[in-house]
Amino acid sequence: MHRRPYGSGSVFSYRRGWRGLLSVGRIDGRRRRLCFDGATPTEVEQRLVAARAAHLGGRLACRAAPTLSQFAVVWLDQIVVRPSTRVNYRQKLERHLVAELGGVRIDELTPPRLDEFFRAELRPRGPHLHQSASVRHPLSAQSVAHLRTVLSTVLAQAVREGYLVANPISRTRPIRVERYDATFLSRPRHGRFSLRRSASGWRPSTG
């Protein structure tokens, strides 16, 4: 049986795919291990090699990763954006992302876990922290796509700070948003439509 070199991590079958673990030392007396999931052993192996290179190159933070809630608070305070954009980010984080994933360490936000979160946001369930109804109304695909974008921006900063080797959002399933093509009436057609509407006696509702 082939033995892996010491310190190169381990790769093994996990559920319906493969998982890799890489130890990157101890933090506060506890061993820190990075976890990678993938569809094939080759994919996981490549990610382990990249993570080990980042670790040996000093590009990984030498401290325990914070939870999403902890990291998001600092991120919101440090980003340079318009006040309205900051309010929009805060609402999406507090009402959805932190409400559901706030207690999870950012290095434990795996693509499968995030995919499940996004799927859950698209279906009715309840109750919800910010909705009084017993059943939570599902979000639109466009709204979930916005959540995915915000979370990707937050985790990109975590990569820059060395908490993550790569952004897990890049390996999640894209949110399919239906697009509709608007048809605008030309001036002559608009005029004919207005005349037909007047001739039919149609009037806009006043209340």
- Give helix and strand order, one letter per element, not per position: EEEHHHHHH
Structural class: alpha+beta
Note poorly predicted spans.
none
How much of the sequence lies in strands comes to 5-15%
Instruction: Count the E strands.
Output: 3
State the distance separating the first and last CA atoms. 79 Å
The CATH topology of the largest domain is given as DNA polymerase, domain 1
- Order of strands, main sheet, comes to 1-2-3
Describe the structure in brief.
With 207 residues, the chain is α+β, with helices and mostly antiparallel strands.
Write up what this structure looks like:
The chain is built from 6 helices and 3 strands. With 207 residues, it is an alpha+beta fold. It has 2 domains: 10-56; 68-171, Tyrosine recombinase, N-terminal domain (DNA polymerase, domain 1). Strand 1 (10-14) and strand 2 form a beta hairpin. The radius of gyration is 24 Å and the shape is globular. The model has no long low-confidence stretch (mean pLDDT 81).
